[in-house]
């Protein structure tokens, strides 16, 4: 969780710093866009992996963000993602899944 929080804090700091330096210019949209795309993209990735049974049951057991096989965005999900970031699911690390989905959001579709 701390890695994602740190990355989000850095992105927000960069956006604020950029807006302070360029008050007469439009805000730097890519930073804002990535932050807004990342959360729904993460939920979609984990939902994809859950739907296709690519995450071992032991990794999902007693997770409060998984209700009746539906993934819900929450702080607990972010924490779980941080712990499993380098875990390989369906041939790619969770980080790679996250990056691909965020880059393609909102058009990203589960490839499984």
UniProtKB/TrEMBL annotation:
Record's protein name: Lipoprotein
Keywords: Signal
Organism: Microbispora siamensis
Protein's UniProt keywords contain Signal: yes
UniProt superkingdom: Bacteria
Signal peptide extent: 1-22
């Amino acid at each position: 969780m701390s890695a994602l929080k740190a990355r989000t804090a850095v992105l927000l700091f960069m956006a604020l710093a950029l807006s302070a330096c360029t008050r007469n210019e439009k805000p730097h949209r890519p930073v804002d866009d990535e932050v807004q795309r990342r959360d729904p993209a993460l939920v979609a990735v984990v939902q994809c992996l859950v739907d296709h049974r690519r995450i071992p049951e032991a990794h999902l057991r007693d997770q409060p963000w998984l209700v009746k096989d539906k993934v819900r965005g929450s702080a607990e999900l972010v924490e779980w993602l941080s712990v499993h970031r380098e875990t390989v699911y369906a041939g790619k690390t969770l980080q790679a899944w996250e990056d691909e989905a965020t880059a393609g959001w909102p058009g990203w579709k589960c490839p499984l």
